[in-house]
Known about the structure:
The chain is an alpha/beta fold. It has helices at about 15-25, 50-55, 60-75, 85-100, 110-120, 140-150, 160-170, 185-190, 200-210; strands spanning about 1-5, 100-105, 130, 155, 170-175, 195. The two termini are about 15 Å apart.
Amino acid sequence: MLVFDFDGVLHDSRARAWRCYQDARQELELQKLPDLADPDDLPVVYQGVLSASLTRWIDFESAERFWKRHAELTALAAADEPHGVIGEMVGPLAELAAGPGYAVVTGSHHTTVHGLLARDLPAEAMPRVLLSRDEPGSKTDKLRLLRTRHGAGAYVGDTGSDVLHAHAAGLTAIAVAYGYASREDLYAAAPDRILSTPGDLAAYCQARTT
């Protein structure tokens, strides 16, 4: 089984994430956090473990509160997203679903991710398992569960944090360079492989089903 992160990997939510970052920063009056000019600035804050990355500007408890509110705001704004799954990934996900199966482990809310996946995928192409922030346990815990119960072998993420969780769970860490983090952050986390584009990820997935 192949496991995916959602935002930044299967779904391009960078514009929404940026808007909600700015909104949460303003709402919580955390002006010490950097004022990001546009979505291309997201790598400034998406470095390593997210809450720890914000301790360059604010304390850890405030960072945890910030990301919780950010998740709430991004869930509320999801209805305005023009697309669900990145176009190049629709076919490969259907092929995986019909073969070895795939799972999604995400820091977003379950209903948000399920709704966006269902925009482009029929029921038979949906993930076999979807674990979100609404289920207990860390991302490492959830990945380890998928490894032991379903034979998951690799996790595809877009941040250094995703890479660290994958390795901690005993999985191969595949990083995509088109998501939230910079290549420098990905390289620092030492993934087993970096894929540059959604087309590269699609080809990687298709190779696993043939």
